[in-house]
Structure formats: C-alpha cells, structure tokens
Amino acid sequence: MIVNEKGFSLIEVLVALVILVIGLVGVFNLHLVSKRGSFESFQQTQASYFAQDIINRMKLNRSQLTAYSGTYSGTLTQPATACDVAIGANVICTVNQTLLWDLYKWEQQMLGSAEVNNHSTNVGGLDKPTACILAQASGDVTVVITWRGIRKVSDGAINHSDALVRGCGTAGDRRRAYSVNTVII
Fold first, then answer.
1. Which of 12, 23, 80, 182 makes a 20 to 30 Å CA pair with 145?
2. Is residue 8 pLDDT above 80, yes or no?
3. b/e per residue, 67-82, with b = 16+ CB within 10 A?
4. Long-range interactions of 182-185: CB distance < 8 A, separation 24+
C-alpha cells in the first residue's frame, strides 16, 4: 500500500527557518557596517567644517594671525567679552578679544556643546577632538584636527611627513586626522 503524503515535514520547516535567520543576520550586520561608515563620514565632514571655520575666523582677524597658533582640546575658559556678531549685536571688541572669543567658540563647536543629550553630555561634535594650528606671519597656515574614530584602523598620521600632523592628538589605531594647508593674505 502506497501512501502519498502532502505538505512539509518539520525538518524542512526548520531548514527554511535556519536559512532565513542566516540571511537576516547578514542583513543586520550589513546595516551596522553601513551605520558605522556613515558616522565616520559624518565625523570627517565635521572636521572639514571646523577647519574651514577657524580659517575664516583667522582671515577676519588677520592682524592676530600668529596668535592663533597652538593646540586646542577643550580647555579654554569663556572670555569675559562675548564677541558674537549677531543681528542687532552692539558689541565692539578689540582684535585680542576677538582672538580669544574665536578660539573659545571654535573649541566649543568641536566639543559639540551646542547639542547635549538629557544627561548633559555633548553629542554634537567630534569624539575627543584635538586641534593644532600653525600660523606664520607670512600667511602660511596649517590646521590639523584629530579625533577618535569608531573602528580600529592603522594610524595614518603616525607616518605623515608633516610633524604637526604626527604630533597632533593622541597616537593610536582609532585616531583620525584631517589637515588643511592654506595661505591667508
């Protein structure tokens, strides 16, 4: 007597579920990798913006160009005079006050102080940023911004030909570096 059975066996269903789960795990991992890559790209874009911001500030305060040189990692205190240029602002600052205000505001932007979460933690800037500026009286300016990335990769700044890039920030397999060389006339 031959019996024709129709339908799926339990083993077939389990094999199909295993294949489905493996596919879903792959899609989930791909999603994580793309999120990390997107965040790394965003951080590099932010570093580019911050470098251009300080260069523009230096252009507006050319007489103090060499005074912008230094290493900045979030330790500056707020100056007594706020030199923000806003609609209706009626503050007149000296070039030195403008210098101090520029560096303070720039440092605060890199730290992300304009965006905080509900635990009062800065979330809008770079992760552990350090910025190094070398401005010469001739107008040659180098701005280097380093920060901590998500993934471990080789530290490209460690073998850089420019000593300013090599020495800016903490060396390590998560250090990212962005540098700009320009001339301010």
1. 80
2. no
3. bbeeebbeeeeebeee
4. 182/55, 182/140, 182/141, 182/143, 183/138, 183/139, 183/140, 183/141, 184/55, 184/58, 184/59, 184/62, 184/65, 184/135, 184/139, 184/141, 185/139
Residue 169 CB neighbour total at 10 angstroms: 24
pLDDT of 88: 62
The beta strands (E) that lie in 12-169 are given as 70-72, 130-135, 140-148
pLDDT in tens, 20-31: 999 999 998 888
Tokens of 76: 């500056």
pLDDT at 152 over 80: yes
